[in-house]
Amino acid sequence: MRMRLWLVATAMLGMTFVGGQVYEFTTFYLHDKLAITTNLFGTTFYVLTGFHGAHVTIGILMLLSLTGMSFADRLPEDPAFPVEMVGLYWHFVDIVWIIIFTVVYLIPTGPVGK
Q1: Is the pLDDT of residue 93 over 80?
Q2: What is the pLDDT of residue 108?
């Protein structure tokens, strides 16, 4: 069933995202000496992106649960409702990432005019 393929593909991409976050956290902490207690940026960065990463992980578990339920034939005859609900959650987390990415990575942090 194509639904299973897309659920697993989405979960794998989510795992890639979380892996990238772990790499970035490790790099910032070990090489740049940025910790959650270093300064306001460190606190904001780790809390915002870490909280988001936790929600992505929950979404991955939801996607894989749907896949497992599909293999076990535990989904309704028409699985649209549970898949749509997980999809809504996943896309909400995605939209939140666009906002976090803009605030943390794209908006300059230096003083105005410099």
Answers
A1: yes
A2: 75
3-state secondary structure 21-89: HHHHHHHHHHCCCCCCCCCHHHHHHHHHHHHHHHHHHHHHHHHHHHHHHHHCCCCCCCCHHHHHHHHHH
Provide the CATH topology of domain 2-106.
Four Helix Bundle (Hemerythrin (Met), subunit A) (1.20.120)
Whether the pLDDT of residue 113 is over 90: the answer is no
Is residue 112 pLDDT above 70, yes or no?
no
In contact, 14 and 61? CB cutoff 8 Å: no
Q: Which of 64, 69, 70 is nearest to 18 (CA)?
A: 64
pLDDT greater than 80 at residue 15: yes
| Arithmetic mean of pLDDT, 8-24 | 98
Q: Is 109 helix (H, G, I), strand (E, B) or coil?
A: coil
Angle at 13 between CA 78 and CA 48, to 5 degrees: 105
Domain positions in the chain are 2-106
Which residue has 């943390």 as its token pair? 104
